[in-house]
Amino acid sequence: MPWPSNTRYLGKSTPRAEAPAKVTGRAKFTTDVAPHGMLFGAILRSKWPAANIRSVNVEKARAAPGIRAAFAMRNGAFTVRYAGEEIAAVAGISRDAVLDALELIEVDAEPLPFVVNELEAIKEGAPRVMPDQPNLGEGRAKVTGDVDAGFAASAAVVEGEYGTQIEIHHPMEPHGHVTQWDGDELTAWSSTQAVFGVRGALAENLNIPQSKVRVICEHMGGGFGSKFGPGVEGIVCARLAQIAGAPVRLILSRREQALAVGNRPSSFQTIKIGADASGKITAFELKAFGTPGHATGVDGGGGSGGAGFPAPYIYTVPAIRVQQGSVAVNAGASCAMRAPGHPVASVGMEGALDDLAAKLGMDPVEIRLKNDPSEIRRREYEIGAERFGWKEKFRKPGSSPGPVKIGVGCAGAAWMSGGRGTQAEAQINSDGTVEVRVGTQDLGTGSRTVVQVVAAEILGIDIGLITVRIGDSRFPPSGGSGGSQTTASVSPAILDTCENVLAELKQISGIEDPRGEHWLEACRKIGQAPLIVRGKWKEGFSNTGACGVQFAEVEVDTETGFVKLRKILAVQDCGTVVNKLTCESQINGGVIMGIGYALYEQRIMDDRTGVVLNPNLETYKLPGVVDIPEIDILLLDMPERGVIGVGEPCTIPSASAIANAVANALGVRVGSLPITPDKVLAGFRSAKT
Amino acid sequence: MKDPIEPQAQSSNFPSAPHGFTRRAFLKGLGTSAISAATLGAETTAKALADVNAERVHGPGAVPVTLSVNGGTMTFQLEPRTTLLEALRLHAGLTGPKEACDRASCGSCTVLLGDDPVYACSMLAIEAHGAPITTIEGLAQSGELTKLQQAFVDKDGLQCGFCTPGMVMTLTALLRKNPHPSETEVRHAISGNLCRCGSQPRIVAAALTASGTEVADRLTIIHPHEHALA
Amino acid sequence: MKTFTYATARSPESAVELVRDRGRYIAGGIDLLGEMKDGLVAPGVLVNVKNIPGTSDIAREGDRWTIGANATLAALASHVALRESLPGLAEAAEEVGSPQMRNVATVGGNLAQHSRCWYYRHPDVECLKNGGKRCYARGGNTKYHSLFSGCMCLSPCTSNLAVMLSALEARIVVQRGAKSVTMPIAKLYDASWREARAQNSLEADDLILHVEVPVARGLRNTYLQMAEKSAFDWALVSCAAAARIKDGKLHGVRVALGCIAPIPWLVEEANEFLEGKVPSDENASRVADIILRDAETDAHNAYKVPLAYALIRRAITRLSA
User: What is the average per-residue pLDDT within C206-218?
Assistant: First the structure.
């Protein structure tokens, strides 16, 4: 790949451009935007898990002190399918006025039977979430090879259950928007991963031209897949602003975050897997279902109805039989969440593989080296195992002495990454300063700094000369920040733009190489009107397919059930590293999200009331700083591959590696995530008796 | 008493909240302790009684509340139900402290009350009346970042940045009290601050760096000749 | 939050006076404001009690500590002399919430805190405790609930201090009407054993003023808890123990458990069993059997039995360490 090799910024550590604004509180997030005369918006949500809403009367709310707009979500009767579904909305002069007014809305509802947990929903006679279809859509089977013959020929076969929970994104900044109309033009400040996506969706839902919508997101407090669109709340916010004739800020509460803005689907996986005496996998069978909430029932095979995941994940198996389904429940719908499907698939497959290794008496690293088709990952296992001290640390499952047992585990991951399509423009001023504009956004991944690094590197100038403007749909377009595609999509566009800048500057100034020491001299020739140059993503500077493996060491107190993490090692490739500092932060972040998935997080639904029992950050437990162990990162430098995004691959194997380490410590597998003390105690004690 | 809300002597590290009591209680107080007719002229007593007869129980409508923030004071008309966080963000225009849970569960709203970090979302503004409050905007007022802020920048102690003001305030308080904390002390100090991006390792590194402690590098680049992958 | 009026009391008497009109006392306020934000309570007046003279002091006189109800948990945890004599109490305070919470949360507030049951706290669920007809925890998800209860409510006592102070045989001084009354700590909670709606035994205008903790010569005490997270989390089970040790033998032992009953869970038979015995693992195990006998478990909370068992054994071992 023709990225420069002898670099000043590329691949080095550059502090993020917006860090000073963020550490001083100057950085304005959506929730901080306050146009003059701004009102506050809020949504009335269903307290019923299922109900026919016969009528909604907002008159009293509309007449309440300080209220400027109120409307019901729909005219006439409608059905709500989960506790938290939107019923009506109001806007008014203060938060308190609006919250007071919500209580004045009269809802005539006929509660309906409901079911909120997967195992109840699949029972015969369970209430139907959608009246015209069964809760469980079984999908289509995927079959290759002769599975039964494969098992018959296996030296060892294991069968087990592997479950994963509903995980909620819970970005620290809640979902929200500030909207303002100026005649028929709408400006939306949105906490989003996709300014152009929000622009399109707002235009479509409000039935106005895209050219009349501007979406701004200068800083945003995390999304993890849940902020690609405006959400119902964004459309509600714009409608409230329209009715009230004033700007409206509508920021969801933490409770609403738990109910209505997405989650990672659950899974109940029954896996049967066999191998020959050498450890080579011969056959694989998966029966699985999970729930993506109320909005399902469509299974396109392979579980594409919302709760599906790739199986047998990263491994090549000659005989496969997979049956995946999605089950509807009366709960908030799923959406993309950091590496959708992959952590779910990984927990099942990597768990089964370890159980198979145990039965064969094999080392877990050995069985992976035997079966993983990726040369990069196999090398990562070797490098990682050595760094981790795997050979010294690994013991037969359950053989760690004492009540506090030590265990180790590992797992691997693949992610397609990739990314293309970004356009960008650079404005070069005669004083040598540069403003680069691109309609991407920064979720916290450091994309602004990526732009800065690439521009400074290609233009050969001091990074301080470059100001980056992002997060505005008036800038040249870039895609949504998802799929770990932003860096790979943006970097080549900036490179192209800057190469075009150099070409134009050469022409204007007559200076053969306007970079570095000649930069100011060349820029002076531009004159008063700045030079504006555009560029776009091009082939050859970015790549797909990130590979990573992780190792975990845990201690499990078999008397209290407490799992303490001792160490995580992440070995990751991401091609050409753009910014080491932010790359490290992202990998830490992925691992820590995986820690939460493995040990703490879970949306808990109550069968009888149908509500989310833990719609807060008190009983929905995010990993805290004391829970987080030493995390070591080994980055495989592979500059010839080009830029590859790393945000998602690094979160995939963490939970699997931890779950495998716990199983290794205990000698028995806790069958579902999160591995909480109650489950450890139950699992360990039942195995003892 | 000039102001209907008058700061009073502090008996703990709590700010002195506006006080108010019923006429009966006040009269009982007159008879028993603090103020006695002997030490007060008749005119003063009359004035004191007049004050008592004026509204002493505040609200429920807006009442004047004076906040002493970042070295300055400002007075707002606030309902007693207004939280300190709402007062700062919505009335004082200080949007550095963030609202992320509104239930004392995440730490994004952390400000300093005197020297102590507190959750502004779970304290009434009226209870912070008169007490010295520092928000993130109160650091680096000269324009120069504090050592800790600079360490956050250099060590990348943030990703999305939403938890950052709370983290910085909590650690500012720690370093003022304990300029050379151990890693364990740093971790426990910020145990009440959540970060969803997973920046905790870098935040701990930033705090230690600011305190002058060397922090080991946790990222190693494996070069092509080492991994030997084509 | 609904609107309310706000007043500051400067004496226990005026506090009681002010709170009469549908009022609640406010000290640290974290628990109360949470309930108000979730619409569980809507007091007409909040009476700030933090400025009542003398209620923030922590002082030892002879063989007794007096701890003001308005002392913060941070003050309790960082009091050097108190930690030396009552390490268990300092540890119990230190395990509460987060540093930010402990900077404002008070001893009185911790003792008088309301149920953390997730049915009780849910804005859309009307449970027995907040005026509804049934306890949804019974037959529901009891992961964080009681193993013992004298009524239909399964919400456990989650106050760390209550558990430790029970082991220490503390007495609570309460302003009740015009006079102050002193009660053993058990009295502070006994109503919630019998009454599903009770959060504790305090009447609406009762105000905790002080806690008195006797310190016998040679008293040892310790507090242990286990939560799902390493910090900033509620205990799943907590265990406090106090005893005198003479010639290697235990005397006047009191073992109390938290989060497994609506009251701090003490079993006199267990305390008696340990009298004069060595703090061996075997004795600790037998005591755990006595304490946990007749626990009513279901699939969700059964894990609390082995967990409590482990904590009892560890606490007793730690007493002699």
Answer: 96
C102: nearest CA partner in chain B: B118
Find where tokens 């045989």 sit: C169
The verdict on A672 touching C (C-beta cutoff 8 Å) is no
Pairing of strands A563-573, A630-636: parallel
Q: Does C142 touch chain B (CB under 8 A)?
A: no
Q: With contacts defined as CB-CB under 8 Å, which chain C residues touch B189?
A: 99
In chain A, what percentage of residues exceed pLDDT 90?
Answer: 93
Phi-psi group of A417: left, alpha or beta (phi > 0 → left; psi -120 to 50 → alpha; rest → beta): left
For residue A302, pLDDT beyond 60: no
Residues linked to residue A109 through DSSP beta bridges, in sequence order:
A53
Sign of the alpha-carbon dihedral angle for A138, A140, A145, A149:
positive
Using DSSP, how many helices (H) and how many strands (E) does chain B show? 8, 6
Tell me the pLDDT tens digit for each residue of C235-247. Answer: 999 999 999 999 9
A673 pLDDT band, cuts 50/70/90, is: very high
| Residue B118 sits at the chain C interface (C-beta within 8 Å) | yes
At residue A534, φ and ψ (nearest 5 deg) are -115, 165
Residue pair A605/A612 in contact by the 8 Å Cβ criterion: yes
Q: Residue holding tokens 């609390």?
A: C304
Answer whether the bond into residue A615 is a cis peptide, omega within 30°. Answer: no
Tell me which amino acid residue A396 is. K
What are A527-546's pLDDT values in tens digits? Answer: 999 999 999 999 999 999 99
Of the candidates C13, C29, C70, which has its C-beta nearest B124's C-beta? C29
Give pTM, 2 decimals. 0.95
Dist. CA B150–CA B181, nearest whole Å: 18
Q: Which residues of chain C make contact with B188, given a CB cutoff of 8 A?
A: 99, 231
For residue A628, give the chain C residue with the closest CA.
C230
CB–CB contact C14 B127 (8 Å): no
Q: Classify residue B125 by its DSSP letter.
A: G
Which among A34, A173, A589 is the nearest to B162, CB-wise? A173
Residue among C77, C31, C22, C71 nearest C49 (CA) = C71
Mutate to test the interface with B, among A576, A625, A636 (most CBs of B within 10 A): A625
Q: Read off φ and ψ for residue A94, nearest 5 degrees.
A: -145, 160
Buried b (16+ CB within 10 A) or exposed e, A112-149: bebbbbbebbbeeebbbbeeeeebbbbbbeeeeeebee
What region does A225 belong to: left with phi over 0, alpha with psi -120 to 50, or beta? left
Q: Chain C within 8 Å of A562 (Cβ-Cβ)? A: yes
Asked whether the beta carbons of residue C103 and residue B21 sit closer than 8 angstroms, the reply is no
Could you give the dihedral angle defined by the CA atoms of residues A397, A399, A405 and A409, in that order, rounded to the nearest 10 degrees? -30
Radius of gyration of chain B (CA): 24
Residues A654 and A599: their CA atoms lie apart, in Å, by 11
